[in-house]
Amino acid sequence: MFRIRTEKEHRTLAFPRTYLVGTPAEDAERVILTASELRQKLRSEPTNLVPRMLDSWKEQVPAALLQYLDWHQNLYGFVGMKDFTLYPIVRPGSFVQIDPRQKRSHLFRWHGDHDRPIFFFELRDSYLCSWCELHDNDLILVPSHESGRQARHVRYPNNATVVGRVTALNMRIADAA
Fold first, then answer.
1. Domain extent for 132
2. What is the tens place of the pLDDT at every residue in 130-155?
């Protein structure tokens, strides 16, 4: 598991779409964007790979958000505030830890929704945190039943890349009083 330093910091980062968070630069101790500035910029961005998005801005994510993350072994993603794909198992606004070494869903045995492996995908125009099934070159991105979403079929590997398996998450389960 990983942790965000304060409840206030997590609430200020209410991104609408799902993102993959990249590794910090050498000078990550410096804060270039405040949480409110970052939130404002992300509101105007389509779903995008966060490192690429930040490269286009020529700026960095605040160090306070990044200092507790293990950048040597993992990647990190943010499930957008409008992404209900795996609701309520992975709620909008969740931070997910991704192991990029685990990319094959057929290697994992599972018995129900709560132990089914979750993967983070890069699609042609977006990112998605989802369950999956692979049949030849047809990758089926499977939402939770409660989400009300339909499964998506994409050609694999042409139109989808498995970023890695989600191994931990930081998620709100109720609104703060």
1. 7-170
2. 999 999 999 999 999 999 999 999 99
Residue 175 lies in a domain: no
CATH of the domain at 137: 2.10.109.10
Give pLDDT tens digits for 113-125: 889 999 999 998 8
Buried b (16+ CB within 10 A) or exposed e, 110-143: eeeeeebbbbbbbeeeebbbbbbeeeeeebebbb
Neighbour-count burial of 63, counting CB atoms closer than 10 A to its CB (0-12 exposed, 13-18 middle, 19+ buried): middle
